[in-house]
Write a structure and sequence with these properties.
The protein is mainly alpha-helical. 72% of the residues lie in helices and 1% in strands. It has a single domain, classed as MFS general substrate transporter like domains (Growth Hormone, Chain: A, Up-down Bundle), CATH 1.20.1250.20. It has a two-stranded antiparallel sheet. The two termini are 15 Å apart.
C-alpha cells in the first residue's frame, strides 16, 4: 500500500467543483446505462430475446447475459487500466464513456428474436459485453480523478462522489422507465405486474436511445479536465510502468486479493436489492415460484424510495471513513450486512411496511458499504499501477458477486419454495467473507497517494514492486 505522507500532497490542478462534477456525472451516466439493462432484463428481455415455454428459464437466460457483462469487466479493467496508467486518467475516461454510450444506444435499435432469431440474441450479448468492458474502465478512473484531487483529510468524502453515480443512475433509469410506462396506453385486462404491450413493443427502447444525450453532456464535462498533479508527477519522474498489469500482479497480488473480497458483500447486496428484488417483488403470490405480487409501478416506486437512502448514506459514509478509518467503518457495516441477511424474511413477513423497511435498510447498508470503496481501493496501490490495480480488484469482485448473484438468488428462491430465506443466508455468507478480508487487511486512511512505490503503513519500510524501499513516516498527514 502507498506510504503515509511525510509532507503535504501536491495541490490539485483541477478546480474542486470540476472534479466532483466530472467524477459524479460520468459514473451516473455509466451506471444509468448499465442498470437500464438490468431493468429491461427483468421486464422485457426474457420475452423479446430469450423465448422459452418456461418463464423461469427465460429469466435465468436474461440474467446470464446480465452476468456476461460482469465477466467482461475485469478485461476492461486491464485494458483501460493499462491506458490510464500509461496515458493518463482523462483520455481513458473519455474512451470508456464513449464505448459505453455507443453500446447502450445500439441496444435500443436491436431487432428482437421474432425479427432476427438468434442473431438478435447474439447482438444483445455482444452489446452487453461491450457495456461491461466499458464499465470495467470507468469506475477506477472516476475514483482516481476524485481521490487524487482531494484536499487533505477529505479523500473518502471526495471518493463518495463517483460512488453516488450508482444510486443516481438507478433513479434516473428506473424513473424514466416509470414515466414511459405511465404515458403509454395500458393493455386491457392485462396483469398489473407486467408491462403493457406498447412498452414491450417499443417503449423499452427509449431509455437506451436517451443515453446518447447524457453521454454527450458527460463527454463535454470530462473534456475540460486536466491530469491530477499526482499522476503528472509520476509521469515526469519516469515512474510510469510499461506493463502495469505485470507490475501489479507480481508486486501487489495481496492487495488485489484483499480488494476483491472487500468488495464482495457490496456487490452481492446491491444486485440482490435491485435485480433480484425486482423479480421477487413483482412475481404473483400464486405463481409457480411465488413472490410479493406488487405491480411494476408500485414496486419500482418503493425501490426508488429505498435508493434515496442509498444516495444519502453514500455521502454520509465519506466523513465517517475519513474520521474513523475505512477499515473500521466497513467492519461495522459488513457485520450489519451479515445480520440483515438473517432478518430478511421476518421483515418481508410484516407486509408492505416490512417490505419498505427491507428496501430502506438494504439500500442504507449499500450506501454505507459502497461509499468508502472510492477511497479504499485506490489507496491499496501506488500511483504507477493504481488505475490497473483498483480496477481489477473492483471488477474481479463483480464476477464473484454481481455476475452470479441474481442467478444464484433465483435458484435459491425456487429451492426455498418461494421464500427468500436462502437468499438472505447467501448474502450473510458472502458478507462473512468480506469481513474476513477486512480483518486481514490494514487501515489505508493515513496513506499518501503521492508516491512512486507501494508500502504498508507500518513502522517499517516495505519493498516496492521494483525492489526499492519506501520509508514510512511516523506521523499521519
Amino acid at each position: 500500500m502507498p506510504a503515509p505522507a511525510s509532507g503535504p500532497s501536491p495541490a490539485p490542478v483541477n478546480p474542486r467543483s470540476r472534479v466532483l462534477v466530472a467524477s459524479l456525472m460520468g459514473t451516473t451516466i455509466e451506471f444509468y446505462d448499465f442498470y437500464i439493462y438490468a431493468t429491461a432484463a427483468v421486464l422485457v428481455f426474457p420475452k423479446l430475446f430469450f423465448p422459452s415455454s418456461d418463464p423461469t428459464t427465460a429469466l435465468l437466460s436474461s440474467f446470464a447475459v446480465f452476468g456476461a457483462a460482469m465477466v467482461a469487466r475485469p478485461i476492461g479493467a486491464v485494458f483501460f487500466g493499462h491506458l490510464g496508467d500509461r496515458l493518463g486518467r482523462k483520455k481513458t475516461l473519455v474512451i470508456s464513456l464513449l464505448t459505453m454510450g455507443i453500446a447502450t444506444f445500439l441496444i435500443g435499435v436491436l431487432p428482437t428474436y421474432a425479427q432476427a432469431g438468434w442473431v438478435a440474441t447474439a447482438l444483445l450479448v455482444l452489446m452487453r459485453i461491450a457495456q461491461g468492458f466499458a464499465l470495467g474502465g470507468e469506475w477506477s478512473g472516476a475514483a482516481l480523478v476524485a481521490t487524487e484531487n482531494a484536499p487533505r483529510g477529505k479523500r473518502a468524502l471526495y471518493g463518495t462522489f463517483p460512488q453516488l453515480g450508482a444510486p443516481l443512475g438507478f433513479i434516473i433509469g428506473n424513473g424514466l422507465f416509470l414515466v414511459i410506462g405511465a404515458l403509454l396506453p395500458s393493455t386491457a385486462g392485462a396483469d398489473p405486474t407486467q408491462p403493457s404491450d406498447a412498452f414491450v413493443d417499443w417503449g423499452w427502447r427509449i431509455p437506451f436511445l436517451f443515453s446518447a444525450v447524457m453521454v454527450a453532456i458527460g463527454l463535454w464535462v470530462r473534456s475540460r479536465l486536466v491530469e491530477s498533479a499526482v499522476f503528472a508527477k509520476t509521469r515526469e519522474t519516469g515512474k510510469v510502468r510499461k506493463l502495469p498489469l505485470a507490475t501489479v500482479v507480481q508486486g501487489h497480488w495481496k492487495q488485489l486479493v484483499l480488494g476483491t473480497f472487500i468488495m464482495l458483500a457490496t456487490y452481492v447486496l446491491f444486485y440482490l436489492m435491485t435485480t433480484f428484488s425486482l423479480s421477487y417483488g413483482r412475481a404473483a403470490e400464486d405463481a409457480a415460484v411465488p413472490g410479493l405480487g406488487y405491480s411494476y409501478t408500485t414496486f419500482v416506486l418503493m425501490m426508488i424510495f429505498g435508493v434515496l437512502f442509498f444516495a444519502a448514506f453514500t455521502l454520509v459514509s465519506g466523513p465517517l471513513a475519513d474520521k474513523y478509518g475505512r477499515r473500521t467503518t466497513l467492519i461495522w457495516i459488513t457485520a450489519a450486512i451479515v445480520v440483515f441477511g438473517l432478518v430478511w424474511v421476518p421483515l418481508i413477513g410484516l407486509g408492505t411496511l416490512g417490505v419498505v423497511l427491507w428496501l430502506v435498510l438494504g439500500f442504507t447498508l449499500m450506501g454505507m458499504t459502497f461509499g468508502p470503496m472510492g477511497a479504499l481501493l485506490p489507496e491499496l496501490f501506488p500511483t504507477s499501477v493504481r488505475y490497473t490495480g483498483s480496477g481489477i480488484a473492483y471488477n474481479v469482485s463483480s464476477i464473484l458477486g454481481a455476475a452470479v448473484a441474481p442467478f444464484i438468488a433465483v435458484a435459491l428462491w425456487e429451492a426455498g419454495d418461494g421464500s427468500p430465506w436462502l437468499v438472505g443466508l447467501y448474502l450473510s455468507a458472502m458478507a462473512v467473507l468480506t469481513l474476513i478480508a477486512l480483518l486481514l487487511g490494514k487501515e489505508t486512511k493515513d496513506v499518501s497517494l503521492d508516491d512512486g512505490e507501494a508500502a504498508t503503513p507500518d513502522a517499517e519500510a516495505d519493498t516496492g514492486a521494483d525492489g526499492s524501499r519506501a520509508a514510512v513516516a511516523s506521523s499521519a498527514p
